[in-house]
Structure formats: C-alpha cells, structure tokens
Amino acid sequence: MTFSTVNPAQVWSPPLRALYSTHIVGDKPILVRDFIHSALYHPIHGYFSRRSRSVGVLEKSIKFNQLEGQKAYMRYLDTIYKQNDISWFTPVELFKPWYAHAIAEAIMRTANFSVPLKIYEIGGGSGTCAKGILDYIMLNAPAKVYNSMTYTSVEISPSLAEVQRETVSEVRSHMSKFKVECRDAADRCGWGNVEQQPCWVIMLEVLDNLPHDLVYSENQVSSWKEVWIEKQHDRETLNELYKPLKDSLITRCVDIMDLEKTHTTQSNAVSKVKNIWSKVYPKPRRCWLPTGCLKLFEVLHEVLPKMSLIASDFSYLPDVTIPGERAPLVSTKKDGKSSDYENYLEAQGDADIFFPTDFWLLERIDHYCSGWLKLQRDHSPKKGRKRRTITLETSSFMEEFGLPSKTRTKDGYNPLLDDFKNTKFFLSVPTHNVK
C-alpha cells in the first residue's frame, strides 16, 4: 500500500504533551476517529472521564422574568460559571425545565399512545433532560401513559451516569421508569434484540462529540486519502499519514456525501483546465467526515427500526482555526478561562473536541441508514423505510412546542430565542409511505 506523510514542520510537536499521546497512539498508526474517541472517552485519560464536571448542573432554575435584560443575563451567566468552574452549561440546563418540556411536548403530539411510550436518550449529560421530560409527562399526559412508560439513558461515561441517577431520583416515582445503561450506543452488541415497537430517541449535543474521520487531497483534482496518525521516530511527536481510501466506514461516508462526483461528472475540457490549474496553484483539501454519526445511525436503524428521532446540535462553530470542511473546535478551560488549540492533535484529555453538524448531510445519513437513499439510487425493487424529516432553527422549535414566555426577561430579550443562533433541531419519524 502506498502512502505519504505530512511535512514534519507542519505537525504538532510540544515535547511536554507527548506522554498522553503515547497512550492513544501505539506502535501502529490509528485512524483519526480512533484518536478522537480515545481523547474524549478513554476510561482513564479521556476528557469526559477526567472531567466529570465538564457539563455543569445548576442548583436552581434561572428566573428569567426577574432579570432586566441581556446585560443582566450575561452578568448572571458569568457569575454562575465562575462559581461552578465548569466548561459549559448545556441549553437544557440553562433553560430548565422549559427546554426539556418543549421536547416532551413534541413527543406527546405525535406519539402512539396505544403502545407503552419508550424513550431512549443518547448521552444524557446531567439527567436534566430526562427529569424534565418525565416531570412533564407525569403532569400533562394521561396517567396510563406515565405509569407504563420507560426512559432509558445510554451513557458512555460512568461518572455522568451516576449524576443522571441522582438527578432523576429527586422524584421518587420516576425511578421505576428510568434506568441508565453505561455503554457505547454505537456498539451493536450492547443493544440486544431488535425493538419492534415504536420508540423515541433523543440526542442533545451528542453529534458534536462523536468521532470524525479526516480525508486529505494534495490538490484540487487528486483523489481523497484517509488520514492516519502515527508516532514520529523520536516517539514524542505525532505525524499524519495518508493512505488510499480503504476503510469501509470512511468509504461509505464519502459515498453518501458524493465527494467524488466532481471528478466523474465534469466535462473533459473542464477537467483539463482544473488539472492545469491544480499544478500551477496546488491547494491541499481537508474534509472532516461524521463517521461516528454514520456508525451510530446504522446501529440505531438496525435495533430500533420504528424509532422517531429528536436531535439538537451546533449548525456551525465560530472562530474555528483548524483547517478543513466541518473542522472542530478543540477547547480547554483552565483557571476559569477558555482557550482553543490550533491543532486537534493537542487534545490530551483536558480538551473538548466538538464539531459542527451538517444537517443536510445528517438527513442523507438518516435516509441512507434506513435503507431508503441507497435503494432509490440503486433503483432497487426492495421496499425501503422512508422517513419524514425536518430541520428547524432552535427558536422555531421552541416557539412551536415550548413556552417562550418563561425565558423572557423584563425588557423582552429572550436568550432561548435570541441566542443559540448556531443550533438547530432535527426531527425524523418513520412512515409507511415508500413511494
């Protein structure tokens, strides 16, 4: 197999950071997604294991109606961040219980109550969403719905799993309906038998922390190559290694994105011009692939074929300096101050790695994993499971399903609607319509 390496002058090389990297990268090269997975989720060295308080928990809900306006709200946020010394508060935490109540309302409007309500939450954080949804259904749904429902949190972090149990147990009756399964949701083995009944899956700020792969092209017309990571000969620095596309998860993701279509659909004249231009002005290309999302969706569609999905995440991230399409932010917090790294290889267990979500691509992955997109493209006579999907701005989702008046300040400023402009909701539900 042919391969190439990046210029050593371009790699990350602070010697004091080498120790942790050697825990991730052994004697053999690893894919970028495996590096990111270890940096975030390694049981000893990973960010979410070492920083159990990376996601904050507010002792009490914010009384937005008592705040004068945006300046007062920002001062309040600054105070609680300093008091808690955590990386960040999730939207479901900042706007509790109203954020979770909106999700519960969305579920209640479309759920089939002729069968027991089953909810799965992937990456439940502090348990605030679970408790808020259980509270809402207990108070607003028919008693038989609450009494027969189950809520399962699939959480990879043991420390966060314990926090979730503590949060939900504040209401005693919830505990007979709630459980935490401490495992990786993308691992098919943990799911057991296929669930044939309708169910709901919730993922809030999960997609951004899923492992991604990286592909590289040395110019505008060269083929994409997989990026691997290996140790340098000095054993203290890391190197990017480029190999032809071979990994099945990467090639499936490239296929879904149609990254290669520009090479196959252009006219000969256009191709010749691009070839000449690429030689005169070569421009390397880097593209981050949501292979962790693809793997998770493949598993979910297999084990929960009748699932309805609600996912919320960042649609873009500001001030990203790491190169490549859909590149991540790598951020750490020390002494109450956040700082961003300029190279993803600097992640060493004390840094969060989070990506923007391409919601157009997310929809394609959803249809692909349900079998519909692939069957349509291949003109297969088989029946695929078509899905109804919609992407909404967070403000639109909350105006439709929530109570925005509860998060409005005295002067009319509403952080739930006015902030988080870079977040969206993705809703996907099954349908029997295959035409």
Automatic annotation (TrEMBL):
Task performed by this protein: Arginine methyltransferase involved in the assembly or stability of mitochondrial NADH:ubiquinone oxidoreductase complex (complex I).
Signal peptide from the UniProt entry: none
UniProt-recorded name of the protein: Protein arginine methyltransferase NDUFAF7
The UniProt record lists the keyword Transferase: yes
Taxonomic lineage of the native organism: Eukaryota, Viridiplantae, Streptophyta, Embryophyta, Tracheophyta
Subcellular location, record wording: Mitochondrion
EC number of the protein: 2.1.1.320
Keyword entries, A-Z: Methyltransferase, Mitochondrion, Transferase
Similarity comment: family membership: Belongs to the NDUFAF7 family.
PANTHER family tied to this protein: PROTEIN ARGININE METHYLTRANSFERASE NDUFAF7 HOMOLOG, MITOCHONDRIAL, PROTEIN ARGININE METHYLTRANSFERASE NDUFAF7, MITOCHONDRIAL
A Pfam family annotated for this UniProt entry: Methyltransf_28
